[in-house]
Amino acid sequence: MTDEPTEGRHGRESSRRENEAPTTWFAEQSGGEQAQERPEPSSDYTEFHTPGYGTPAISDSPPRPLTGFRSERRFSEPTGLPNAPRWNPPPPEWNPPPPPPAEPQTEQFRVIPADAAPEPALPVPYRPEIAQTPYPDLSTSSLLREVKPPPSSGWRRLLYVASGKLINVGESAKDIHHRNLVAQANQPLAGCYRIAVVSLKGGVGKTTITATLGSTLASLRGDRVVAVDANPDRGTLSQKVPLETQATVRHLLRDAGRIQSYSDIRGYTSQGPSRLEVLASETDPAVSEAFSADDYARTLAVLERFYSLVLTDCGTGLMHSAMAAVLAKADTLVVVSSGSVDGARSASATLDWLDAHGHQELVRNSIAVINAVRPRSAKVDIQKVVDHFSRRCRAVRLVPFDPHLEEGAEIDLTRLRRDTREALVELAAVVADGFPKPNRDAMNW
């Protein structure tokens, strides 16, 4: 056989392939599987073979469209899946089936009944930011020199005055303590605070403690302080201040509907040099005995409108009709005892009676005052008396004997001894320590 030139043989094979339509699929595997017949391609597209999917590459040149067919490319299906169905678009009338229902998630989501649902969180109140100093290096503390408070007593005060106020060695420890007590007594107070002064035994200085405590609070604070005489047995509270009016608590109740301002109520009270005002009781025992719980409640309702502190000087009879209202309205209790044995026993019996009649909270927050109505006796151990009341009351304070208080006349704080004034300031500070704390969120708003 004569060998034909390679170029001529390839040319005749290329011409033959251009005139013949592809009619078979070639096997992809190298094992020489038998070719399968396939239908003739329609005239709507041109066969395009993708290298790597099993169809033999005829030449390295790009495929050319066959004669008589439109030039539209289509990727051939992989020969590795001979029976794979060809995807066809769904008909227009076909509707997809609904998805299967979701499984109930009982573990992740649970329905909480309304009664068991947690309460919603309270809204956070608006709290404006505290303004900062725009120029810290120009603040008062950085520009002004620190000035020590001048001494108020002792040799320090004498040296300060003798040097023409040029030598200031500062305050003593006692002066600093006094200044702190005054600051404590001046704590802010929201609303009206009611103080009841009680004792079962007469002659222990209950009325004197009411007047001196009220005078001290009025002299230290800037708000109004009034003391009410609720003693049905001809009380003497009005004798502790200069008498300015003959009006009594009965006149106040009679004219309560016409009192609209502080100047109106001022006509029914007498005021001392310390700014303490006193509302007197009736001098006729028959009339004062008729002062009932309702009368006291009405009186207190009028006073609360114009005064920040109301002190009530109670009688010795705890079963008096007005005592129920006094104890029900009181914010704190001051129990007065003398330094004697019978005075301490009477004060302790007062606490027992209050405990037995449902006033345990008043007893726990009460203040015991041991008042020396006469010079101290060396036979009575006052410290044991203090220890006894310390276990039952919130605080215990001692008021020493003072000749000015023994007079029984009008009280002038400037005439008291220094230790007596200091003891009264301590008592006022302890009382103020029980004031309700103001709501700072409401103040910021």
TrEMBL record:
Domain CobQ/CobB/MinD/ParA nucleotide binding as annotated: residue spans: 195-405
Cellular component, GO, one term: cytosol
Coiled coil (residue ranges): none
Source superkingdom: Bacteria
One GO process term, biological-process aspect: negative regulation of cell division
Residue numbers spanned by region Disordered: 1-106
Protein encoded by which gene: minD
MF GO annotations: ATP binding; ATP hydrolysis activity
A Pfam family the protein falls into: CbiA
Compositionally biased region (Basic and acidic residues): 1-20
Biased composition (Pro residues): 87-103
SUPFAM superfamilies in the cross-refs: P-loop containing nucleoside triphosphate hydrolases
Protein's name according to its UniProt entry: ATPase
InterPro entries cross-referenced by the UniProt entry: CobQ/CobB/MinD/ParA_Nub-bd_dom, P-loop_NTPase, ParA/MinD_ATPase
Gene3D superfamilies, alphabetized: P-loop containing nucleotide triphosphate hydrolases
Source species taxonomy: Bacteria, Bacillati, Actinomycetota, Actinomycetes, Mycobacteriales
